[in-house]
Amino acid sequence: MRAFGTARWLNCHLFGDAQKAASGARNFQAAILPLAFQSQLRAFSASSQRCSAAQEALKKAQNDAASLTPEYVAANMDPAEAQRLERVRNIGIAAHIDSGKTTVTERVLFYTGRIKAIHEVRGKDSVGAKMDSMELEREKGITIQSAATFCDWKKTVNGKEELYHVNLIDTPGHIDFTIEVERALRVLDGAVMILCAVSGVQSQTITVDRQMKRYDVPRISFVNKMDRMGANPWKAVEQINSKLKIPAAAIQIPIGAEDEFEGVVDIIDMKAMYFEGPRGTKVRVTDQVPANLQELAAEKRQVLIEKLADVDDEIAELYLDEQEPTNAQIKAAIRRATTALKFSPVMMGSALADKGIQPMLDAVCDYLPNPGQIENTALDKSKGEEMVKLVPYNSLPFVGLAFKLEENNYGQLTYIRVYQGTLSKGTYLYNSRTDKKVRIPRIVRMHSNEMEDVNEVGAGEICAVFGVDCASGDTFTDGGLPYTMSSMFVPDAVMSLSIKPKRSGDADNFSKAMNRFQREDPTFRVHVDAESEETIISGMGELHLEVYVERLKREYKTECVTGQPRVAYRETISRRADFDYLLKRQSGGPGDFARVAGYIEPNEKPDENHYESQVVGGHIPDKFLSACSKGFELACEKGPLLGHHVIGSKMIINDGQTHVTDSSDYAFNLATQMAFRKAFPEAGGQVLEPLMKTTITAPNEFQGNILMLMNKRNATINDTEIGSEDFILTCDCSLNAMFGFSSQLRAATQGKGEFSMEFSHYAPAPPHLQKELIAKYEAELDSKRTK
Ligand SMILES: Nc1nc2c(ncn2[C@@H]2O[C@H](COP(=O)(O)OP(=O)(O)OP(=O)(O)O)[C@@H](O)[C@H]2O)c(=O)[nH]1
Predict the structure, then answer these.
(1) Which residues have C-beta within 8 Å of that of residue 377, sequence separation ≥ 6?
(2) Is 0.95 exceeded by the ipTM?
(3) Per residue in 460-476, pLDDT tens?
(4) Within 6 Å (CB) of ligand 1, which residues are found?
(5) Alpha-carbon distance 626 to 273, whole Å?
(6) Tr-type G domain spans which residues (predicted)?
(7) Annotated binding-site residue numbers
(8) Which domains does the chain possess?
């Protein structure tokens, strides 16, 4: 980063944009340059031998880039930038389905003045929550798309107000929309993990926990629904520790519970908080902790200090010296440990009853990191695999990530997280994947489905731009930096459906919709099957595909017919088999001749295929070897058993033969494909099916029913955990056996059971299923041949 910041400065200087160069250099020097290098630049400015000095300075900057550690940046931070960043938070709200994410967000928007009235999810006023803007979301009462918004929170510190700018993303809880959670977490600096006070850690909580860990997202926890019967925040705190393995401790205790839930006691400052006035807008804070809670407050404060002593050196030292840390020391330790992913402070409340949200917002500002405290890196394409650090300074060259695309009534909207530099309206940016230059005609800040125009957005912020053609996950720079940011994890599709519009007149709308959905959602894929010529859509599960079929109907007035859901099988081999294949065809004119010999065997990496040539003595010239490699790729794309992808295979070609006139790329490509297909059965070719990690939660009385359901499906039960009311069963089950499971679960549990399913791994399908599938595939091929 530093190298190119310098490069830009040098460019400005060399090409005569003196004013820009001067200010760029000033900012840049003040911001991050080591002293030695600053003097080098000063010397350089004075020098008349521009070219050689420029080269030297560039070289030095490049060599120095490694020393740009977060500590260095923090120590040398421009105070104005540091102050600006400290007032910015980019946070996400993630949790199990129905924990109350949308309800919490609605309160956040209300208390920060972004909305004037609160509307409930599935509320009687039929308006629906602000963040569930899609008609389908409001109807089903679930969040499908993540929605971005921003708000300003006035935090009162010692009677003085401090204004924080919070960018917030409400994410869906259902696993089928997991990509929405993934892309939100990729660009956020912190998260609020919401748990239900009755259910504690649930199946989807475990999934979002895994995602937060994947992207190193620090979090605070909020135990919601304290007004519900059976609410018990301590169960949730214990489960965050035991199930999610995150050291966590409450920083509040509840005043009452269930319908007597009144407020919370802040056990750091030892103050009681009551939420009064219309919709709990007035927070009454008092030093009088209710007498019956004083002992519990002191006990839980001690638990908090002990937990912090486990994860924070400063508190550990005080603890060992038997000294009581001050409130400020406790707060500073919570922030350090939370930012370092070693701890999660737990708060509690009831969003529906308008209690506990304001202190949660304070905690977002107090304990979650600002954009300057997170290390973000990019790949420097000019240096191979070298990673460079990005620094969220407005004055540096621009680097941003397009993390989400969305089409609305005004056109194509691209959400961008600005990692470095400033994004200004009317400027040009480069897409580092396509190397195309794009103009940024309009920048907006999103507020669910509404927007506000802005002229400029600073480093560390999130915004959306119009009229930029790109794909989800593209990196944009100001042109000088050959950077690309690592993209997010996109899971493989596990299910597909054939689909076509009912009326041929809808074909146009149908293809428009397919294009849009694909661009917006990397887990939704569309292809046309070469043989059947059917359009196939694939995605993360039944609900995922169902939602798109429904959106086609509602948003594009295109009703569709869909086929049976299909599983994405894979094919693989289990042992080595040698081959020696000769392709020799003579049909009048020039013939085809190619001989390839070698072996296939299982690859060390079971998800990937590998091709290698070990041909010596030029028996197959290089020009034909690349055709062999292509042939292997093609053979893996359409496996010999079912026509599904082959994974985990390795092909080595070590000998062959050519013919002076009849050998060609075509002949070697085809011979390799044929050789692979012929050797496949001998190499123990088999069909793999996706196994799903399935978690089922239901009241204890249904345990027998559920076990029977899962046994019928040949599930491998990994764990059963019996709680006071509910039990949780975790198992691996083939996707094939899970079709229609939701209705059967409903029937078996009187609608009280719920489940979540996530792809786990591929495993050999049972032999009878393999036989059945292969026979069906062959029959299909035969019928096509006879047609
Ligand atoms: N009793 C009670 N109910 C709540 C509370 N918060 C939310 N709910 C209810 O729980 C249900 C789910 O709330 P949502 O806000 O849609 O939950 P969500 O986590 O956004 O749901 P998904 O987006 O579908 O995952 C709604 O019926 C809410 O009214 C609470 O504090 N107490």
Answers:
(1) 387, 388, 389, 390, 485, 486
(2) yes
(3) 888 889 888 887 778 89
(4) 95, 97-103, 120-122, 141-143, 172-173, 224-225, 227-228, 350-353
(5) 71
(6) 86-372
(7) 95-102, 170-174, 224-227
(8) 81-367 (3.40.50.300), 376-485 (2.40.30.10), 495-563 (3.30.70.870), 570-683 (3.30.230.10), 688-769 (3.30.70.240)
